[in-house]
Amino acid sequence: MKKWFCSVAGLSLALAGSLAVHAQTPPVPPPNILDVEMINLKPDLDGPYDKVASEYPALSEQLKDPTHVLAMEALTGTPRAIYLSGYDSFEALQKSEEWLIGDAATDAKFDAQDAREAPYISEVHHTLWHYRPDLSNNVTGADIPHSHYWEVMIFHMRSGHAEQFEELTKLYRDANLKIGQNTPWSAYEGMMGVTDAYLVLVPMTSLKDEDTALAHKKQFGAALGDEGKRRINKLSEENVTSVEDNLWMVNPEWSYVEKSWIESDPQYWSSEPAARPAPKHATGATPAPKAPSAP
Fold first, then answer.
1. How far is CA 176 from CA 17, 109, 171, 188, in A?
2. Whole-prediction pTM
3. 79-129 pLDDT, tens per residue?
4. Backbone torsions φ then ψ of 198, nearest 5 degrees
5. Which of 109, 112, 157, 115 is closest to 4 using CA atoms?
6. Cα separation of 53 and 255, whole Å?
């Protein structure tokens, strides 16, 4: 079935089991403006890239970079790195971008690091997204500093069909709540560098969440009911053009995170590269067929 109900199964699997929360960790609110930098790596060069990318956080710390970054590497799809930076406003983004202006020595250090990294990269793409609390769910229940895995979805809509995505999301959220899965996720609407798109971020403290979620798949379908399934499929076929759905693993060596995150999980955020499992790239991130998906 080339329908949204089927393609959303990956989302329901990830969401259904991701409620494990460390009570001692304060909630990390989603930023109002999200800067997403997607880096495509050249084939078989992710190893050399890893070495150079791991040097950025120490340089940022040394130079007192005001912008913190959560970095992840793709577990599905082609070899890629993704860097997430959050801002309260566009004014805050401006201040971050202007940090290096007038400081030639600091700027030169980052330029030199970028030059060392460039041979391993085939493409870099920046996008800006605006937080949509009305399309998100239970964000205070997410334990972001301990979320070592993320499902990242981008839903591409037909132009002018924003209301239909909102309805799809709410149908999905209501069905999950009916089966007791008040799962955290944050939703963003594309603003710049991307058009007619929505980003859904699902944090997971462990991939065991995926295993636990398998038990809820039938319950989710039952909660939707026949009418709900038909409505979701119709909305999907008529309004969603494609979906990118991928699994990512946080890379602490590439990340430059808040001090509070490090204090909440010092062993993880200061771990050596050898302590982490080597990534295995599988097939993922494909455009949905004729009738794709939404959350």
1. 11, 48, 9, 20
2. 0.83
3. 999 999 999 999 999 988 887 666 778 788 888 999 999 999 999 999 999
4. -130, 140
5. 157
6. 9
Domain boundaries, the chain: 4-275
Chain Cα centroid distance, residue 113: 25
- Return the closest-CA partner of residue 75 out of 144, 127, 151: 151
HEC readout, 66-131: CCCEEEEEECECCCEEEEEEEECCHHHHHHHHCCCCCCHHHHHHHHHHHHHHHHHEEEEEEEEEEE
Taking the C-alpha atoms of residue 15 and residue 6, their distance in angstroms, rounded to an integer, is 15
Q: Which residues are paired to 186 by β-bridges?
A: 201
Contacts 24+ apart (CB under 8 A), 92-96: 92/33, 93/33, 93/35, 93/128, 95/66, 96/66, 96/67
Residues constituting the chain = 295
AA letter at 7: S
Count of Cβ atoms closer than 10 Å to residue 264 Cβ: 20
* C-alpha–C-alpha distance, residues 278 and 257, integer Å: 22
Question: What's the CATH code, domain 4-275?
Answer: 3.30.70.100
